[in-house]
From TrEMBL:
<protein>
    <recommendedName>
        <fullName>CTP synthase (glutamine hydrolyzing)</fullName>
        <ecNumber>6.3.4.2</ecNumber>
    </recommendedName>
</protein>
<dbReference type="GO" id="GO:0005829">
    <property type="term" value="C:cytosol"/>
</dbReference>
<dbReference type="GO" id="GO:0005524">
    <property type="term" value="F:ATP binding"/>
</dbReference>
<dbReference type="InterPro" id="IPR004468">
    <property type="entry name" value="CTP_synthase"/>
</dbReference>
<dbReference type="GO" id="GO:0042802">
    <property type="term" value="F:identical protein binding"/>
</dbReference>
<keyword id="KW-0436">Ligase</keyword>
<dbReference type="GO" id="GO:0003883">
    <property type="term" value="F:CTP synthase activity"/>
</dbReference>
<comment type="pathway">
    <text>Pyrimidine metabolism; CTP biosynthesis via de novo pathway; CTP from UDP: step 2/2.</text>
</comment>
<dbReference type="GO" id="GO:0019856">
    <property type="term" value="P:pyrimidine nucleobase biosynthetic process"/>
</dbReference>
<dbReference type="InterPro" id="IPR017926">
    <property type="entry name" value="GATASE"/>
</dbReference>
<keyword id="KW-0315">Glutamine amidotransferase</keyword>
<keyword id="KW-0665">Pyrimidine biosynthesis</keyword>
<keyword id="KW-0614">Plasmid</keyword>
<comment type="similarity">
    <text>Belongs to the CTP synthase family.</text>
</comment>
<dbReference type="GO" id="GO:0006241">
    <property type="term" value="P:CTP biosynthetic process"/>
</dbReference>
<feature type="domain" description="Glutamine amidotransferase">
    <location>
        <begin position="173"/>
        <end position="350"/>
    </location>
</feature>
<dbReference type="Pfam" id="PF00117">
    <property type="entry name" value="GATase"/>
</dbReference>
Amino acid sequence: MSLIFILDDSPLPARYGVTASHWANQHRLPLWSLRPDFCGDVPDSHQHVARTGYCVTSGLYRSDTLRQEVNAVSALPTADAVIVVPNARSDEIVDLPGQRLFSHDSGQTLVLRDAAQTLLTLHADHYGRWSATPTVETPPELRIGLIGREADHRQAYPATLAALGDAAAALHLTLDIRFLPPATLSVDLHELEGLHGVLLPGGSSMAAVQGQIRVAQATRSRALPSLGLCLGMQSMSTAAVRQQPGYAEAILAEVAPDAALHSFVAFADHRHRCGVMPFADGEMHYNHRYRFNPALLPQLKASGVQVNAHTDDIVEAITLPDHPFWQGVQGHPELASRPDAPHPLITAFLRAALSQRG
């Protein structure tokens, strides 16, 4: 089989490669990507964790056949693959043999065409999940707070919102998602009123941490179901440590390198722990350079938080046993979620929120 090049014109990280992922999944073909650049305030544009052990464009998160994303055309395969290419780099492949398809982002739909006809039209649902069938939305039954700007979740890193949609569909629920930008949260956190649960996501922006810590403290005291993913779990752990006398200033080293007390510290060997690794009875996507400070394990335990998963001296998961649901994981379960197979941790979170609703 020859190469199939898909020229993608989407300016948004969350949409780049979506049609190519669907096409490659549908035809069971390996998917490669020529790495795009994006303009604007999109810090999480390249945060999907590939099995090859590095991060690629976030819109590729639903590919089941992804092989690699490369910077150089010379690193692309020469046969038997679908290759998604940003329109801005189309001149770089002009002399390469292979079929050309064209992906157009209209804003409302993503359309894949060849020179003669439309091959695929995708529509997004309430959670940013793309499918060939438009969805009919039903009235929301559960209010979930999602930390972060709406634009970040819809335009840059779509996996968390989509994973909530997968879990909600499995439970036959419709969610009312309330986006909570951490930089603009009120002093009394009245934004949490009326919510049935809060999800604290990962992300590369350290500006979110102080707000996430405040939310974690509040959801603990209010018995509001909460789930923390990667950076969200780090914020929850830090919130717990801060409850102990003398530890109120604990903070992530990534946020404040010169602070006197670090709740999360860099690995001694300065590794970037990135890839898909064993976790419990399955796998977990990981993307972090910092781990919970082992010296603070006594303070974490004294706060009532339990470490319920670890790899050597790396804290992988935490829980608060006397809380309806207050759990965090160092990895990214949202990246393993699929419409027909939501991640069980996210489903469990929504079940707890449903119980909270009563």
